[in-house]
Amino acid sequence: MLINGVPGDYVSIHDRGLLYGDGVFRTLRVSAGKILCWPRHFRKLQQDCAAIKLPCPEAALLSDELQQLVKQQPEGVAKIVITRGLGARGYAPAESAVPTRILSITPFTPYPDEFHTQGIRLRVCDLRLAHQPRLAGIKHLNRLENVLAASEWNDAGIAEGLMLDAAGNVIEGTRSNLFMLHGGELLTPDLSRCGVAGVQRERVIEWASAQGMPCRTGQFGLDELLAADEIFMVNSVIGLWPVRELQGHTWSQHPVARQIQEWLNHAPD
Amino acid sequence: MLINGVPGDYVSIHDRGLLYGDGVFRTLRVSAGKILCWPRHFRKLQQDCAAIKLPCPEAALLSDELQQLVKQQPEGVAKIVITRGLGARGYAPAESAVPTRILSITPFTPYPDEFHTQGIRLRVCDLRLAHQPRLAGIKHLNRLENVLAASEWNDAGIAEGLMLDAAGNVIEGTRSNLFMLHGGELLTPDLSRCGVAGVQRERVIEWASAQGMPCRTGQFGLDELLAADEIFMVNSVIGLWPVRELQGHTWSQHPVARQIQEWLNHAPD
Fold it and tell me: How far apart are CA B218 and CA B140, in angstroms?
């Protein structure tokens, strides 16, 4: 662990990350000593910082510090947390706020192979995501909605929960982005009012574009999702999981998801 | 500062309060060695913990620890933060999670006298509060909306910002609850979809009931607020601030607000 470049694993109780969730984060896969998709992750980190007017540390600084950690742990999951740093009492950030950067790597606990090969069982969460356009898409530290949604079930056989918004649109998994295939068209929920726009979602959209496969971002209900030819979830740690069961509906074949899974795992960043 | 009863001012970077804003807090006024409205604050803390399924520490434990701090600082602002404690990676809370309790007291920096006597200037924030019934009313650690709203202005002459919801209803200040007086009736926004239901709001509602003054919770637009006979904001640190200016409208007399201000400051808890 490195806190502002110094080994340690504690932060001040006056840190605004703790007090208000005033910060952003990224979770990255480290494999064979390499930080996967680093340029994309850094670009998203920059965008997310900018969206809440948080100064983003330099890419070289973060990359150097991550490399120090990767040397000790060449296989794992890295996490970068950037907070607005120490604050006096009160919500308004000080002009002079110096961000805190927290870098860590933990061992990677592999998921059951069948999640990748056979696909996962997905459940619909009761919690509905609120519309907050000012925070939508950002991977910020205000994650109570995800916590409440993820605490709804306790069955290891259900790998992920699907979150809808208050209007009934399907949005994302508790920790992953959602795609569906509908008559040769790839569809993924619009994340301009809620949800987190992840790096692997961006890669899948680019893959479709490169393949000449139509890909559309929009508002989709649960009925449309259940009628899809294929469903899959992506994130930087799991890669791609096809969905084999959702609300009694089953999918046994995932030809397009397989192709994308292969590409995500082996293509350059 | 006391972290789980031990003097210190650091928490682990694996604390879910930092990682996800997974916790709740209270801000209390300490005056002449007394924690004001302690039973009410503890009751709200219990309710807020229950709302996110967080085990709440015992009243006696918190009260004893606060007293240790109060001995060193008999005038100030105390803060209690309860988080879900250490967590492995992942949003789902462990069944065995042991909450972290963080208690601190900082000196009280008095606000300008005129805020209490003449009233404050209030501004309308651009940020609109999202509707999330599952988190509404709770003083949880996901406070990015308040941070963004409070960062909208930088004029010390404007004491507070008014936040509306996405539907255009007036809800609250960035750090205070809102009341208005309309033809002898006291009105305060419904907080079942967004906002924080504070202890002083509860006291004002009880005051009205004891006085036989009609008091109604509902949805009110900015137009209704601007047409009010009196407007005032309350919280546990500021007490009561009458509003003397909002969007070019001015109020020079606040007879009812004065009465309530006096009562809040001097009545038993």
Answer: 23
